[in-house]
Specification:
By secondary structure, this protein is of the alpha+beta class. Helices cover about 15% and strands about 30% of the residues. The strands form four sheets. Strands 1, 13, 14, 15, 16, 17, 18 and 19 form an eight-stranded antiparallel β-sheet that branches. It is globular, with a radius of gyration of 20 Å. The protein starts with 16 loop residues before the first strand and ends with a strand.
Length: about 350
């Protein structure tokens, strides 16, 4: 009997790995802004249903074909690479606490139309009813937005359970009207706790961090052609609606969930403090003559402005060469293992490092 082992990936190196486009087909429209951001032409056969680019993903779609896992150029999937050398990729402290799982899914999301009103289970509900240790708290780092573009988050007033059920049954605009509307622009960040109903409006382009699941309760679903088993995670409608926070989410609470990532000078957090339980987003902003440094971490590095160089402290795993800076510019997306060591950014360039919780 032959025992097989996960292939050792040639991507298990300390140099940054450029991530390929990973855009599974979704039920809503978008994707052109992703291609433009990443410097890619729109294919002639583009179907307009590729609104999400899943970056360094170990997660699969709940429905819609089950795609989503990142596969490197050598054919190795990210889970295989992590399993082959977990301490290098994630760091021994992370592996001791969380195992061979980053605990993070990062996306670029281009809302080519308003997304449905929906929510995501929190960890407690997911563990109790979906046999999953992760819920889906998420955060939006707004990279671009059309003038007047909006997102919606949390009910403005307390909704009794029977009223929520009636609105879900009606499937009309009253669901959206019951939410807090927030006008957004480039530079905003919004944290969306598990359970909070929300929607992203047309014309909003975000870098999204989330827990590594695709669990969504689609309060609006009929106009998107979603079957109830998909919309309610295979649960009964009443049980699925138990996962929804019926509010209210007050002005003060909303304020605690918002921040401006463009206010960071040098090195700083992009997200509100409560996000750190779930994930981290660190802004590194270098200016000419003033490089900045980030500590070693498993990180999805998204270059959001300018151009410059990125260098790591460690060379390849086999020690055959010294590390060399690489040129980076807006739209580049790279994956860095913990074993790459300290990161130095130089030039006139800003990146966001998306990382698991500390």
């Amino acid at each position: 009997m032959t025992t097989t082992h996960p292939p050792r990936s040639t991507t298990t190196v300390s140099a940054p790995t450029r991530l390929p486009l990973n855009t599974p087909r979704r039920f809503y429209r978008g994707g052109e802004r992703i291609l433009a951001f990443r410097g890619l032409d729109t294919p002639a056969d583009f179907d307009g249903q590729r609104p999400e680019d899943w970056l360094a993903s170990t997660t699969r779609l709940f429905a819609e074909g089950g795609d989503g896992v990142t596969v490197f150029a050598d054919g190795t999937s990210l889970p295989e690479a992590l399993a082959a050398d977990p301490d290098h990729w994630l760091g021994p402290d992370h592996v001791a606490a969380h195992g061979v799982e980053p605990g993070l899914l990062t996306k670029l999301l281009d809302a080519g139309e308003r997304l449905p009103v929906h929510s995501h289970p929190d960890r407690a509900f997911a563990a109790a009813h979906l046999d999953c240790e992760h819920g889906k708290t998420e955060a939006w780092i707004v990279l671009d937005a059309e003038p007047g573009a909006s997102v919606w988050l949390g009910f403005r007033e307390e909704l009794p359970a029977d009223e929520l059920a009636a609105l879900v049954e009606a499937q009309d605009e009253r669901l959206l009207e019951a939410l807090n509307r927030i006008e957004v622009q480039a530079g905003d960040t919004v944290l969306v706790p598990g359970g909070q109903p929300h929607a992203i409006g047309e014309g909003v382009f975000v870098l999204e961090l989330q827990e590594p699941t695709d669990l969504s309760v689609m309060l609006e679903h009929r106009r998107f052609g979603l079957e109830e088993a998909h919309a309610f995670l295979g649960l009964t409608v009443p049980r699925a609606l138990d996962s929804v926070d019926r509010g209210p989410l007050t002005v003060e609470q909303l304020g605690s969930l918002r921040r401006r990532w463009t206010d960071v000078a040098g090195v700083g957090h992009a997200l509100p403090a409560p996000a750190t339980e779930f994930f981290r987003a660190e802004v590194l902003r270098a200016t000419p003559g003033s490089p900045v440094v980030g500590a070693a971490a498993f990180a999805v590095v998204v270059v959001v402005a300018g151009s410059g160089t990125l260098a790591t402290a460690a060379g390849p795993v086999d020690g055959t060469a010294a590390p060399r800076p690489i040129e980076v510019g807006r739209g580049d997306v790279l994956l860095l293992p913990h074993g790459a060591g300290q990161v130095t950014l130089d030039g006139d360039v800003t990146v966001v490092r998306c990382m698991p919780p500390a």
